[in-house]
Specification:
Blueprint (H helix, E strand, L loop, with lengths): L1 E2 L9 E6 L3 H11 L5 E7 L2 H11 L3 E5 L7 H10 L6 E6 L4 H10 L3 E4 L4 H12 L7 H24 L4 H10 L3 H8 L3 H10 L5 H8 L3 H15 L4 H10 L4
Parallel strand pairs: 2-3, 2-4, 4-5, 5-6
Antiparallel strand pairs: 1-3
Helix pairs in contact: 2-3, 6-7, 6-12, 9-11, 10-11, 11-12
């Protein structure tokens, strides 16, 4: 584990780089340290080092590799996210564009998912988005998350219904009866919160939502926080899945 010798300004976004390849960490550091609002406060080469460094340095964002010795990035992410004293957002950075990594990363509590072949501007944008509390998910990734959830839900419902007497009839009735109304009443979102949730489900950032609704970003952050709290959702990804599951979009 290495720590930057210079103390960053209070306004800077503090970043911890985690990758078992020193050249990759050096490249990321070079890109991030050239910005005015981001500073790399430390590096780690293994998952265990990442957990320790995150606890010691309290970064705002952790850029985490997936495949590493000692402990992989997914387990390291789980431990970092589970520690409320750290409070860092984790962006998984990997060479592989694989759905199993994507869903495992989101399940582990990662804020976003970035490929290592992304351009420098994408890396910088990813750090800023994560630090701002937004989920780093493109519309394509959001669609994949929703599709995977829908597939799992449909398969589970079909097996459950077919195992019961009158399963086929019950399955047809279920198709005709949306489950949104009961859930809608349960969460009791305001109309503005519903608008914000719909835009979150379209993978919009806080800035984009603010522009669409003609309100300030601080107001959007408040609405997003209220939505997550009311839905019992850990993050924006969970809110998107919840919204599509219960017909709230």
């Amino acid at each position: 584990m290495s720590v930057s010798p210079e103390a960053p300004s209070r306004e800077s976004i503090r970043v911890l780089l985690v990758d078992d390849h020193a050249v990759m960490r050096a490249g990321f550091r070079m890109i991030l340290d050239t910005t005015d609002d981001i500073v790399v406060v430390g590096e780690a080469a293994t998952g265990m080092e990442a957990v320790s460094a995150a606890s010691a340095l309290h970064p705002d964002v952790v850029c985490m590799d997936v495949q590493m010795p000692d402990m992989d990035g997914l387990e390291a992410t789980r431990r970092i996210v589970a520690n409320p004293a750290v409070g860092a957002a984790v962006v998984l950075v990997t060479t592989f564009d694989r759905d199993d990594y994507l869903f495992a990363a989101l399940s582990a509590g990662a804020t976003g998912f970035l490929l290592k072949n992304a351009g420098p501007e994408e890396l910088v944008a990813a750090v800023r988005v994560a630090a701002d509390g937004d989920a780093l998910l493109s519309p394509d990734v959001t669609r994949r998350v929703i599709a995977r959830f829908a597939e799992t839900k449909t398969t589970g419902a079909r097996l459950s219904q077919q195992a019961e007497p009158g399963g086929a009839a019950r399955q047809n009735a279920t198709r005709e009866r949306p489950e949104a109304s009961a859930s809608e009443a349960r969460v009791e979102l305001t109309e503005r919160e519903r608008e914000v949730l719909r835009l979150i489900a379209q993978a919009m950032s806080n800035a984009e939502i603010a522009a669409r609704l003609y309100i300030g970003e601080a107001t959007v952050k408040t609405h997003v926080s209220n939505v997550l709290q009311k839905l019992g959702a850990r993050d924006r990804v969970a809110a998107v899945v919840y919204a599509h599951r219960h017909g709230l979009t």
